[in-house]
Amino acid sequence: MVQQGKQTEKIILGIDPGTTIMGYGVIKVCGRKAEMVTMGVIDLRKYADHYLKLGRIFERITGIIESYLPDELAIEAPFFGKNVQSMLKLGRAQGVAMAAAISRQVPIHEYAPMQIKMAITGNGSASKEQVAYMLKQMMKIPDDAMLPWLDATDGLAAAYCHFIESSRPTSTGGAKSWKDFARKNKEKIHGL
After folding, report:
1. Looking at 57-66, 81-90, 118-127, which range is the least confident one?
2. Where does residue 12 fall: left (phi above 0), alpha (psi -120 to 50 degrees), or beta otherwise?
């Protein structure tokens, strides 16, 4: 983090894990404002061997970290699907990306896909296209900077979600733990 006047500037790297296409986005936060630095994809389609894909993920994420020097990493948590093999491969890809961040001492924050969509669009079941559209509007991303891969905007969405979540004041109502929070907010939790 860099102090700029009285505002703290930080860089957040967001990752949308994938074993075919992995999306990433980098944002710069200055005070309460976030702007896109870059977004892109790591295309793994040419690698037939899963272990080669994992090695490439580690190399590319490490390179992105060394290029942009993020203060934090926001990564989409794997969702639970019906295909166990796909989930296993996705979890490995996420783990390797996290290992790259750990190797460079970058703190990691995980967000569920629904939480990211909710933070960006206000709808936890929004489509990838809706997420991309909202990011384009909120971050004033020019048309020529938008990429055809929605994995890239999903990576950017993870970073922006972390910006939003980390900008909110702590709302635990004085709770010191999850158990304490649940006890103090029993009516709210059960009323969902």
Report:
1. 81-90
2. beta
